[in-house]
Amino acid sequence: MRFFKIFCGIGFLVVLISNVWTISGWNESRGVYDDVCYLRQAHLFERFGLRGINTDAVFDDDHYLKDKLKAIGFAEWNDVKRIPCHTFIPAADKYVMQYPPGTGFALALFPSGFQVVPLYILTSVVAVGFAFIALVRASTFQLLMLVAAFGDAAIYLMINPTKASYSMAPTMMLCAAAGFLTVKFFTAQPRHRMLLIALTGLLIGLAVNFRLPNLFLAAGYGFYLAGAFLLARSRTTFLHGLSFGIAFLIGIAPTLIANAINAGSPFSTTYGGVDVAPPELNPAVLLSYLVDVQFTLLAISVLWTAWLWRADRDRGRPIALLVALNLAVNLIFFMTHPIFTPYYIIPIDMLSLWTLLFATLDLRGRAALPQPVNA
What we know:
Strand 1 (86-89) and strand 2 (94-97) form a beta hairpin. It is globular and about 60 Å long. With 375 residues, it is an all-alpha fold. Helix content is 64%, strand content 2%.
């Protein structure tokens, strides 16, 4: 087993090196509107520090955004009413960026002009780290093969389709960490569980600062913890839910502050247009998901969840139930959202898959694998 683990570890490093080689050749000026706006967000943090959370278009007095738009050939670069990724807020009579502040802040941690490459390299390194944690926990050859296949795929996914949006890089890191902590919550000693569920809530809350739809990543946890309290009516289950909720609110605090500054209220959105359209079932959107890699990952998540539910009635079912609730809520939201992108359901896919992987390793070990049927 030790030899095979070393061999699989080398495989992870090979994929990591391939990622780094690919990422190193990326150009930050891809001509994508989202990229320009995230870089403008980072530029505001670089200029004004934490005051850069205010994304009012009037702060483009150094023409950073206009120059970026001209560089990608945007014809109406000088018309504030046509600036991509910005929304007009009538109450404040200003144009502000629609995105929460996390992605720009993450990019601003790196040198201007060399921000995207190190962020994505860091993302890949984190994926390798969690793959190695899983590798150490693999107790059988079958589990080792599962970890090897999952780890290589997860590391590769850190660049494709993650590269489609800069907001996805930090999201993917948090999904891996939250999946690991979720399983720890269910398997740890009782005295440690409150801290673990609080850390999980904090990470998922932080994820909202990178992509607002990450808010739905908390839905399954909320339903599960509320249901556990209603069934048990115990102080422990109440404190678990309270800890998760408080930590989640702390995590999303930057977005609430940004909303208050940019939209006039913590609970007012800076998004507009199709992003705030009412839910509807669009056959074209559904078909786009069905033929995309996201659906393949979703199908694996659903089948794996069903298997875990049947394989371990005592400790596997609570995790399977939480994952199932999370998948259901996110599926309903994104399948009724009027637009499709190649990364919308990747966060819930990866949060679910990392959770299921560590659940299989930590809860089942050898017994987690289907037993051969005797003739």
